[in-house]
Amino acid sequence: MSAALSLASGVVADAVRAAALVDVEAFKPGNVSVASAGHNMRAEDFIASAKAFATVIAQPALRVGERILRAIEATRAVVTFNTNLGIVLLCAPLVHAALQPMQERRLRERVRSVLADLDVTDAELAYRAIRLAQPGGLGASARHDVSSTPTVTLLEAMQEARLRDRIASQYVTGFEDVFGRGASVMRAALARGRGTEWAVVSVYLAFLAGLPDSHIARKYGDDVAQKIVSEAQGAAQAWDSADDPAEAMPVLEELDRRLKARSINPGTSADLTVATVLAMALEDLLDRVYHREALNSFPIAG
User: Fold this and answer.
1) DSSP 27-87
2) Which of 40, 64, 285, 287 is deepest in the core (most CB within 10 A)?
């Protein structure tokens, strides 16, 4: 029987921080980046948020709900508006799965186990975090609304919201979009030698041009969200077909201007991108630990 595997909290925190920071460094049309502010926010706000929540969310001996709440509390200590609720909701199960000693080597299977173990307390803590973050366009739900005290597990609450929220659907599907669409696109982009930042843009455009963004849908309706998918497809095609990514930048910059002129921020596409980057990093770390490589860089925890 193989030994249980887990990652040290410091290593996981570094992976979270790197994923959140590269998200700001990469040029993602409609989102805030180092190269393009927007939506009354600056890249500095997201950089500060990344640095604030990464260590907290990866602390040992926490439940998933605690990771979510503490991460949002840490974020609110440095910014006064929502910069990363979706990122935190997606990262918390990934982080928890990497930190827990398990014989399972594959991150997605570890995540499935974590999601199955979520309980009502996790829901209570996550609801508190969502209320604290005050995300735009949240609206109300007839059942299990975040303004109320939950009586179901966090997974059951996510099941209720899955059809209107792509982040909630990740909990229900075992992070299908992240481990499926996102990971496959990122691997292909990296194989082309584009580097991490360019691969991040590829993943983001794949989500933006392939799935209606649920953040946009909540704020502006399903028709607008679907229209943005159509608008993004040209940019995604230009990006994917370019021999040099710089050749496609004018197309991406024009889409960025159009989206920001209408105050449209594809937040869910960005959140899924961060989760993809983190998932791939954690998978790689677990694989290296499994093969007992570079143990001085990331000691086995537990």
Assistant:
1) --TTS-BTTB-BTTB-HHHHHHHHHHHHHHHT-TT--HHHHHHHHHHHHHTT-SS-SSHHH
2) 64
Residues present in the chain in total: 302
The fold of the 9-290 domain, in CATH, is: Triphosphoribosyl-dephospho-CoA protein (1.10.4200)
Q: How far apart are CA 37 and CA 41, in angstroms?
A: 6
Rounded CA separation 16/164 (Å):
26
Burial of 287 (0-12, 13-18, 19+ CB in 10 A): middle
Confidence band of 193 (pLDDT split at 50, 70, 90): confident
Mean pLDDT (whole number) for 236-253: 93
Phi-psi sector, 33: left (phi>0), alpha (psi -120 to 50), beta: beta
Question: Locate tokens 């398990």: which residue?
Answer: 102
Write out pLDDT tens, residues 100-123.
Answer: 999 999 999 999 999 999 999 999
